[in-house]
Amino acid sequence: MMQHVSSELYPVQHDNVLQGLASEMPFAEAREDIFYHINRYDDYEDGLFVGADPADSPLKQNGLSLKQQYHALADARNALIIAARVRR
Length: 88
Hints:
This protein is α+β, with helices and mostly antiparallel strands. The protein has one domain (2-86). It contains 3 helices and 5 strands, in the order αβαββαββ. It is globular, with a radius of gyration of 13 Å. It starts with a helix and ends with a strand. The mean pLDDT is 84.
């Protein structure tokens, strides 16, 4: 959904300004230069989606899943911090 309303989406596209915004989010922790909220879903061992994790899906058809691209998502309790430039 966010790709349809934004012109740039960090971390999918590298953008220093958006990366800076992501770094300022509460609880942001860097892992391999990508920002995550580690243990965001600490009360849910299987994550927010309890087994139906959208991070298992690719952003583009025949692409890598989000978990393959952003390694900290291997733990379903972690959340990827994203920042976007919204189209006008």
